[in-house]
Amino acid sequence: MTTTTARNILLLHCHDLGRFLGAYEVPTVVTPHLDALAAQSTLFEAAFATAPHCSPARASLFTGTYPQTNGVLGLTHDPFGWDLTDPSAHLAHRLGAAGYTTELIGVHHESRVLPDDVVAGRLGFDRVRTGGDRDTVVERTVEALDRVATSDAPFYLQVGFHEPHRTPSARDRPGVMGFLGDSVTADDSRGLTVPPYLRDDDGSREEIAELQGAVRHMDGGVGSILARLDALGLSDDTVVVFTTDHGLPLPRAKCTLYDPGLEVALLMRAPGRPAWRERRVDAQVSHVDVLPTLFELVGLPHPGDCQGTSLVPLVEQGRPARTHTFGQLTHHIYYDPKRAVRSSSHKLVANFANAPLAMDPTQSWVHRSLPAALNGPTLGSSPVLELYDLVNDPHEGDNLALDPALAPVRAELAAALLRWMHDTDDPLLNPNPLQPRHHDTLTALTHAAHATAQQSGELPSPAPASADRPATAVGRSVAPPRERETA
């Protein structure tokens, strides 16, 4: 199959979208421009973020590394102030070194929030203009496209929409932050799609109508930018990527390691490569795979320090990119460390603190949408381990961590999760003496992985059991006696 190499990269991203698009078979959301882009692109049906919240997810997207490696384990704005350990690992720095003109417009949330000129120097952009609503972002991007169209140098434009993030509005009731802001109109013109993990009631329906309006509003901005790219004759020489940071900002989605918190839209249009046109790929992929994929698509050598895998062989040769995807949460508005590994059929979540089962992502004192699983005053706190059969229980409602029939599955996933934590130098491998649960989870995870790990020689043997604390619960049953982590 004949392929050509496009030189330019236009990377469009937005806040909090998940896969809430018509192209991902959500029938009530109006997204004609992104649906049209999807029809010209490869759509990844099982793409996942590395984290279910903004800054760590974006840091992975733009560096090709996991949060434990790049240092962004929480939000980058004040008062949190997390930052990239090495800002030169950013995609803009890498492309600038290869001769690209680089510009950031709109959302910047992957490194410490500082003045635009400081961000530009740290991350390797020739120009940075952060902030702005949809229309401001579109205006600035059109101006940037007009400028780069007259240059011989290849360009990288990183364009971030704030929408459909929750935004304060005078139209909100006291205690509520919805999706309206100053410009969004709620949209139920095609009906409403209430996700199955929410109660389908008046509160959820009101919130989903606003969300649908915000997504439609953002889609219009994408359409304006792509129309300008076409009008300038740049489309045939520009790889276009559209994605988001993580899942929808709804209860039991954002800020959780369940699929609704980690699932992302990922569309990639690669001109001159027929295999990438009108494709839907159902294999698991991760945001860390985007950077090496872009390098291969534009003919640059694979960056050796990247933890992702190029998706070109997956799309063009049918070679699976990965067996597992990994997710992590450490600190959003409070410390809630947890890690997850997902195969095509199962997911294992390890919870290192006694936080609530699902962190609240609504930024509201008054909740309009509630989890479908809420049958009492709270969802309760997290068990040590959670194991879900994603084929028979796609909404992750039945924790099977203690099911003896799934012991081999639990062992395989626990070994993969521990191996990944070791490979990324995960700080959670160091037991926290102030967090008894932390040590208990490390012990339970090591026990779960022990049988297969010993056979494969991939993990060290647990040390002899200690009697300084009683055994702890995994789900509702008693875990094996606690052992000291030796790694």
What does the secondary structure layout of this molecule look like, with pairings?
Layout: E1 8-14, H1 32-39, E2 42-48, H2 54-63, H3 67-70, H4 91-97, E3 101-106, H5 116-123, E4 127-130, H6 134-148, E5 155-161, H7 202-231, E6 238-244, H8 259-262, E7 263-264, E8 266-269, E9 279-286, H9 290-297, H10 312-317, E10 325-331, E11 335-342, E12 346-351, E13 385-389, H11 407-423, H12 436-456, E14 473-474, E15 477-478
Parallel strand pairs: 1-5, 1-6, 2-9, 3-4, 3-5
Antiparallel strand pairs: 2-7, 2-8, 6-8, 10-11, 11-12, 12-13, 14-15
Helix pairs in contact: 6-7, 11-12
How would you concisely characterize the structure shown here?
With 487 residues, this protein is an alpha/beta fold. It contains twelve helices and 15 strands.
**Helicity level:** 25-40%
What are the segments in which pLDDT stays under 50 over at least 5 consecutive residues?
453-487
Question: What is the 3D shape?
Answer: globular
Query: What structural category characterises the helix and strand content?
Result: alpha/beta
